[in-house]
Amino acid sequence: MQQPQNIPIRFLKGIGPKRAKAFAQRGVYTVEDLLYYFPRRYEDRTKFIPIAFINETTEQTVRGKIININVRRSFRRKNFSITEALVDDKTGRLTCIWFNQPYLKQYLKQDNEVILYGKTELYAGKLQMTNPEFEIVSEDTEDMSLHSGRIVPIYPSIEGLGQRALRKLMFETLNNYVPALQDVLPYDIRARYNLLNLAQSLINIHFPKDEHLKQEAYRRLAFEEFFIFQLPLAIRKTQSRQIQGIVHKPDDKLISKFIDSLPFKLTPSQIKVIEEIKHDMASTYPMHRLLQGDVGSGKTIVATIAALFAISSGSQVAFMVPTEILARQHYDKITGLFKGLNLTDGKSLNVALLSSSSSLKNKIIEDILANNIHLVIGTHALLEEEVRFHRLGLVIIDEQHRFGVGQRALLPAKGTNPDVLIMTATPIPRTLAITIYGDLDVSVISELPLGRKAIETVWITSQKRLWLYDFIRQVVQKGRQVYVVYPAIEESYSIDILSAEKMYEEFRTKVFPQYSIGLIHGKLRQKEQEKIMQDFKQGKLQILVATTVLEVGIDVPNAALMVIEQAERFGLAQLHQLRGRVGRGPWQSWCILVSDATTPEAKARLEALVKYKDGFRIAEEDLKIRGPGEYFGHRQHGLSGLRIGNPLTQLHLLKDARRQAWELIQKDPKLLLRQNVLLRNKLLQRFPEYENLVMVG
């Protein structure tokens, strides 16, 4: 029999090209994809709640007969209809309401027996279920065995297919194709953790015999997902340890002199991380280390000391950042710190800034190849083919999530197995980081520099705008500076977002005419952006109106107030990054979130930012709110492709799967043993980009 992963879904009975397109929108292209299209929830239809015993405000499943149905127009809203059905189950009656769905009267008829699922509440003294999901009970006994008298799966909707049709399709597909599935999870691992086989798991995740088997199916399938996504990480880490790296022998006197010259004291956390990096760079294999640290924790100075380790050992360093503004800031800061510092041979440390708009770009590229530049700080321009190094010994990548996996690999390829330090200000809990970034060693800066005051965060509605403007005036009158951030550059007629340009004009002409105000956004030319930021840094501007171009890395110690307009339109990590632009001086700083948020998710984000200051705790909340797939981004180590596993709630299972994957790769690094061939094929199907890791030879 042909393998399910090779059969397009359009060839299934009743699908065809049109429905295949609807499935494709859900990421379902093959029969195997359909088998892994899991229910979003279940209804226990072995017993229904009698209407007489329904509780308010909880979701219920009831079964009854429609005794009356009508559609009426809303008096308050034009072209708005209300469909109302009265349902009786002999214990009581329940009113069901659907808003603006007049077509339902074509399906729901008087005397229809229906199954309803939804939240109930008391309205005008009677029970009401609003916009419930429904199914019409069939007289076909065989057909009803899928839809009643059992734990029934409810799937994410597919355009043009109702739940009954989806269940029938899934049931037939399981019957026809499960026998052809090959279980890639090794038998000894299944036995060790008492896991169901693949056929049992798929049958019981879709049509569970009971709650226990449903949970066991969930556990097995989640374990398999975690296990397969850990394999390439284990392979990559194992192979990297077999590569000959650069053994750096830094000049300890130079490093000590540099640390002593700093205008601040390193924190114990920074010192610990520096030692971890030094140990890696002195080893025989290339360093691959992830440096996590909250906004403002001092990652840049740690990276600068790592650069000195490489430079004083005779190597060059490439430091890549996502924006030209950040590259310029790092360049200015590091050249200032290196002033008066000479290498052992008496030569000064040469630092260059390379970006697409660099006026001396060709000269800088020549100097890099001639080894006249020790440290080059730049943007994506560092990845250009003509940029070549004399002896690249260390690659530093800042805000790694802003570069694709392929981009991150290009820069190290310009050297011979250089050390790599990846930095992120988007922290995740350490235990999860070790598991997710399994091919990297993880360092964490867990404390802020001494003397930093906690930023006070407040959430207000737009009705308090006059209070906000008074507060901005108070901050500016004290000599401090203010950021006001908006989610859009220009006014949009399709969505109601306050425009940065419009509000800049209003501030300049009406609200704060007495203050100097600037506007910065990503559509400005690079030189204009740099000029505005330089003016703000030097105190020539008191208020800076901006978009999220500010999110990463901008450092102005005198800025003491961050105002974020329509804050519900930003992600939690974005909000935390923006908040981190203030609080860098010795005075009290504030972050004010302006939002009329109404959705539970938006409210949860804003409440989390008000409640928590610690980036790691905020990351945990962000993971809970968004879920792992969205949080880690497109194809980030496979986590965004998780269909059933949840690393937050199943961390112990993730750790077990990781342990087994790593043990297997120790014994069979390229999955060439006969018993691992199916696993190898599954890995390449799931992660084709990792084919080079398991190539023979």
> Numbering strands along the chain, what is their spatial order in the largest sheet?
11-12-10-13-14-9-15
Task: Please report the first level of CATH classification, the CATH class of the domain at 252-282 and 298-424.
Answer: Alpha Beta
Kindly state the number of beta strands. Answer: 21
Report the β-strand fraction as a percent range: 15-25%
Shape label:
globular
Structural class: alpha/beta
Distance linking N and C termini? 32 Å
Q: State the share of residues found in helices, binned by percent.
A: 25-40%
Instruction: State the fourth-level CATH superfamily of the domain at 252-282 and 298-424.
Output: P-loop containing nucleotide triphosphate hydrolases
The main pleated sheet reads as: 7 strands, parallel
Low-confidence segments, ≥5 residues, pLDDT <50? 633-638
CA gyration radius, whole angstroms: 30 Å
Number of helices: 23
Summarize model confidence as the mean pLDDT: 86
The CATH topology of the domain at 252-282 and 298-424: Rossmann fold
CATH architecture of the domain at 252-282 and 298-424: 3-Layer(aba) Sandwich
What report would you give on this structure?
There is one protein chain. The protein is an alpha/beta fold. Among the domains are: 47-149, Nucleic acid-binding proteins (OB fold (Dihydrolipoamide Acetyltransferase, E2P)); 252-282 and 298-424, P-loop containing nucleotide triphosphate hydrolases (Rossmann fold, 3-Layer(aba) Sandwich), CATH 3.40.50; 456-612, 3-Layer(aba) Sandwich (Rossmann fold). The protein has 23 helices and 21 strands. A seven-stranded parallel β-sheet has the order 11-12-10-13-14-9-15, with helices on both faces. Helix 7 (211-240) crosses helix 22 and helix 7 (211-240) crosses helix 23 (677-686). It is globular, with a radius of gyration of 30 Å. The relative contact order is 0.09.
